[in-house]
Amino acid sequence: MANYKTGFVSIVGRPNVGKSTLINALMGQKIASVSPKAQTTRRRQLGILTTDEYQIVFLDTPGIHAPHHKLGEFLNQEAEKAMKDVDLILWVVDADAGPLDEDRMISVTLASLKKCPPVFIVINKTDKVAGTDLRARFDQFAELRPTAKLVGICAITTEGLPKLLEAVIEKMPDGEPEYDADVVTDLYERDIAADLIREACLLHLRSEVPHGVNVRIDEYTERGEIGALIHATIFIERESQKGILIGEGGAMLKRIGITARKQIEEMSGRKVFLELKAKVEKDWRDNEMILTRFGYKIERKKKTGKR
Ligand SMILES: Nc1nc2c(ncn2[C@@H]2O[C@H](COP(=O)(O)OP(=O)(O)OP(=O)(O)O)[C@@H](O)[C@H]2O)c(=O)[nH]1
Ligand SMILES: [Mg+2]
Fold first, then answer.
1. Is the predicted pLDDT of residue 304 greater than 90, yes or no?
2. Residue ranges of domains in the chain
3. Residue 212 contacts by C-beta under 8 Å, 6 or more apart in sequence?
């Protein structure tokens, strides 16, 4: 194809700045889970945007932060891996908060890369800041990486997105598309369903409990016209959290189930029967064996023997 453009674009940033909201907005459909709580995204996920002129493969990534658990180490590794071998990095920051330590951590990581791809600093949530304050914010973020292009957006209203997309396309090299035009993401429907159930937990559960939640799909069966039958287990870290998750007379689990079912039905375009159960997997976020079993495998650097 003559003049066809194609490339990989990583979306990185600290937790809760709106990376997944941005990938959904760019895709024009919800492929990634979003919530008001930090560390919603737990793995890299592709959003593949294909037109007659270009195919851009966006990578949503977990928020980079100072980890308190082994799970956090995995999340940072996932995000940092996505900074290498891409054509462009969209570093998302929050206009409302200004640069925080975690943003500075990211600027250090970017500076340490042997071959850093071009970087755009995408200043999101511009809806929350008035004009003059916003200009000051731009200056503050520009200091973190003076060579980066700065773009202001609001991922929720999509303001600024056409301009951002135009600038992204400009950076894409010529090439053939790698994915079929109808493929929008690399996750299987059952994985997205698991994320949507966790998203419902993040929405309904208070304080620390939802961060210790993991969801396993035990059964995902197509029942033709009737829809899909899904059985899932929600893991929590402690016995005391089980009661909170289930709620009085099962009320909380029911509420989570209703929210998740609606989201899964919207995502899959068909009726869904969802059955949830709760199980304790003690302190799983700090247990590498269980983390690996859940699909969060931490990579250890090989020892060189030198000190
Ligand atoms: N006001 C406002 N809120 C936004 C905007 N973009 C995202 N949000 C909200 O910010 C919160 C976090 O959004 P996410 O997309 O989950 O953030 P994330 O960066 O993917 O977070 P992690 O996956 O935890 O790293 C959600 O409550 C979003 O609705 C925006 O442009 N304006
Ligand atoms: Mg996210």
1. no
2. 5-171, 189-293
3. 236, 237, 238, 241, 284, 285
